[in-house]
């Protein structure tokens, strides 16, 4: 049984933080997060900074006021939109959907927590009821031209959002809270899940990577470099099912080949802000795929998501990483590959420990 409330923590005010800097060493190679630094302009953040929240994703003071674990993070602009929705529902003699918790009796302050109203959480089909009201809300926003930096990328694909686990039912996925259109996940700071596959060949013990360039018409990160295959895990799918499907859809790779050669190699987890400022906690399941060195099998664009694939040496790949050419989470996946395969080590990276550990941040939010 799901928790009575599924609160969403309100984003705390940002606090100043130090910018990650590059250490000076006598080496001619670029040290300190050398595979992650974006140095092409002063106002661009390091990829690592993009994968680090402004401050801890939720604070203990907010948590102490509500016994339920948060399931997302809200910016003030979303809080206002939820308050407006409550008022609009009252105007048409309907029940408000959003329960607002304030840090004090002064309701002029910004709410510290938002959850579904009790009548929704207590519905017999509570999972579908939550989903219906969220869908009504976000479709209304889209129709009224709100939050189009996210909602213009509407996919008609649903992501699963989970609530705190019930100790009486610990089966994976038993704590499903609701499903929501994937384009809206970032608006609420919900945890999302994806898959990333790195296809590579080895020649004379050197790694070469099949790197695609994202289509210039993509709603997010157009024309950036990407991982060989990547995609979100939609509701009802497993990571393995997703990566098999995406391999064919994005790279024209045969399913039978993939099933025989793909290797599941763990995951990375992080919280970052996308280019529009939305807080996005993500967990990415990572896969490796070694292809024949004679190029008898070559990834090819299939669904229009990518413009082309280029076989890049390790040196070329690290050069593009340093120049900020990759979508940030794709850069993180490649760095994880470099660590796992001994390309990046404590001997050639002064900040090896920081690089390694920042790719395994706690999720803070409920897991399946």
TrEMBL record:
It comes from the Eukaryota. SUPFAM superfamilies: Nudix. Residues 188-334 form the Nudix hydrolase domain. Residues 1-31 are annotated as: Disordered. InterPro entries: DUF4743, NUDIX_hydrolase-like_dom_sf, NUDIX_hydrolase_dom. Pfam families: DUF4743 (PF15916), NUDIX (PF00293). One of its GO terms (molecular function) is 8-oxo-dGDP phosphatase activity. Gene3D superfamilies: Nucleoside Triphosphate Pyrophosphohydrolase. CDD domains: NUDIX_Tnr3_like (cd03676). PANTHER family: THIAMIN PYROPHOSPHOKINASE, THIAMIN PYROPHOSPHOKINASE 1. This is Nudix hydrolase domain-containing protein. It comes from Puccinia striiformis. The lineage of its organism: Eukaryota, Fungi, Dikarya, Basidiomycota, Pucciniomycotina.
